[in-house]
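Re: beginner question about structure tokens

> Can someone show what the tokenized structure looks like for a real chain? I only ever see the sequence side.

Sure, here's an example I had lying around. Input first:
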Amino acid sequence: KARLAAFMLPLLLILSANVVVFVIVMRVLFTSKKNATTTNRLRDAVAVSTLIGLSWVFGFFALGEATFAINVIFTVCNSFQGVLIWYLYCFAKEDVPMKWGFILGKSTEGNRKRLSASARGNQAYQ
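And the corresponding structure tokens:
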């Protein structure tokens, strides 16, 4: 019982701090993007919650006499955390499919102009 309490107290403190950060970031995201669609806001919420590790809420409930389902949910959420971060920040961005199309030779003239303008703006990073 003492080991369980020694694990739960730091976990609870970290989760509390993460929830506070999540609420603050969500408030800023929702008030700063007046013209954002619901899909973009939902994607931002999932991305932020993934980054700050809110899947550990399931980890808190997985301690002790937890059901098998809670343990499975916790394991799956943590296992796919990196994949979800990759998808949200690399693949789901609007300009990434356009850049892949350019690399694979399937771009239009308009895409080439936007890519060249984007490349000129990012020359310091190349």
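Each token stands for a local structural state, so reading them left to right follows the chain. Helices lie at 2-32, 38-51, 56-61, 68-79, 81-91, 95-103, 109-121.
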